[in-house]
Design brief:
Blueprint lengths: L1 H13 L3 H12 L4 H7 L6 H40 L18 H15 L3 E2 L5 E3 H4 L10 H5 L16 E3 L5 H10 L3 E10 L10 E11 L4 H16 L6 E8 L2 E12 L6 E2 L4 E11 L1 H6 L8 E8 H9 L12 H7 L16
Parallel strand pairs: 1-4
Antiparallel strand pairs: 2-3, 4-5, 5-10, 6-7, 7-8, 7-9, 9-10
This protein binds 3,4-dihydroxyphenylalanine.
3,4-dihydroxyphenylalanine binds next to strand 9 and strand 10.
């Protein structure tokens, strides 16, 4: 038995792979294995002999089995180690100097805006770009005969005859996400909703698809003063320069009362757009205190809650901040333009390290 033990343990420790191990297992403890055959001979022994040989054979069998299991685990470890060695990758190496792609100014500015409002406690909400007319208009206090529907140059989705689903439009503003957010989250609430919007309009400062960011803050004691502070704070952080001048103009929107439009001082000299100087004003947003009917449409009790909202043109503030004079170029996909105005893909805007390093 000592010979058998030495023989098999030696073979096991020298086995190079799982197949060799399996061959050894069959030869030793398989049905016709050497140790198994010896166990069968126990029947022919005298009871005294059997009392000694039986436990010894069982112990030998167990020892061989566990040596095989241990060797198997060892082989698997070695295989894994070898793989880890060959597939090793140094993720701390610096990235390539000139990345092939770049971040579009709209994406960059959306991230910058999000970082600033996140810092003021606003969450990000989204809604569909194909919107039903209740969310886009009625719920925002723009009933079907209202002139605002005509003014918006709305794209209506085609409806087949006999289709009696509610009419759908390409959303003309991000304001319907106010309604969706109120219905979903209730009050109090603080959200911004960035996204694409659509209107049939085309010139130096208008494209049929453009971007807005909606803001909504509802609580028990929110006033116009909070709105003004939040917007001024935003503009200061966003433009990263001192002395950006804002102009609040009394205005009218069906979904706010009172309402204000906000312009920013700029100059347009020789096709160069500069913020914070000159005698021109560029409108960047509409805002106001949320109309009680809009709160009601959002399932919020206007006797208990109030708040402000605003809708800002992302493309407009991108043009202003980065001195891009023509909005249409944003969507031409001209590689030279994208290389010139694009941002490094690995620089994520954040407030701590500066928005637009
Ligand atoms: N939805 C308006 C537009 O697209 C902008 C706007 C004005 C949004 C006032 C608001 C607001 O939330 O309070 O022209």
């Amino acid at each position: 038995m000592d010979d058998l033990k030495a023989k098999y343990l030696g073979e096991i420790s020298a086995a190079a792979d799982e197949a060799a191990l399996e061959a050894i297992r069959l030869a030793a403890v398989g049905k016709k294995g050497e140790i198994s055959l010896k166990m069968r001979e126990l029947g022919k022994m005298t009871p005294e002999e059997r009392q000694v040989a039986g436990p010894a054979l069982n112990a030998l069998k167990d020892e061989v089995n566990s040596a095989i299991a241990a060797k198997k685990a060892g082989l698997a470890d070695a295989a894994l180690n070898e793989r880890l060695q060959t597939e090793w990758l140094d993720v701390t190496l610096p990235s390539r100097g000139r990345p092939a792609g770049s971040i579009h100014p709209i994406s960059q500015v959306t991230q910058e805006v999000t970082a600033i409002f996140a810092d003021m406690g606003f969450a990000v909400a989204e809604g569909p770009q194909i919107e039903d007319d209740w969310h886009n208009f009625d719920a925002l206090n723009i009933p079907s005969h209202h002139p605002a529907r005509g003014e918006m140059d709305t794209f209506y989705m085609h409806r087949a005859e006999g289709d009696n689903r509610p009419p759908h439009v390409l959303r003309t503003h991000t304001s319907p996400v106010q309604i969706r957010s109120m219905l979903e989250k209730g009050a109090p609430i603080r959200v911004i909703c960035p996204g694409r919007v659509y209107r049939a309009d085309y010139d130096q400062t208008h494209t049929p698809m453009f971007h807005q960011v909606e803001g909504l803050a509802i609580d028990k004691d929110i006033s116009m003063a909070n709105l003004k502070w939040v917007l001024e704070e935003f503009v200061k952080s966003f433009f990263e320069v001192d002395g950006v001048e804002l102009r609040f103009r009394a205005s009218h929107f069906p979904f706010t009362e009172p309402s204000a439009e906000v312009d920013i001082r700029c100059s347009w000299d020789n096709g160069q757009l500069k913020v914070g100087e000159g005698d021109d004003w560029l409108e960047i947003l509409g805002s106001g205190m949320v109309h009680p009917k809009v709160l009601e449409a959002g399932g919020i009790n206007p006797a208990e809650w109030q708040g402000f909202a605003f809708g800002m043109g992302i493309d407009r503030i991108a043009m202003l901040k980065y001195g891009i004079p023509d909005l249409r170029a944003f969507f031409d996909s001209d590689l030279r333009w994208l290389r010139h105005y694009g941002f490094a893909a690995l620089d994520q805007p954040d407030l701590a390290s500066g928005l637009s390093r």
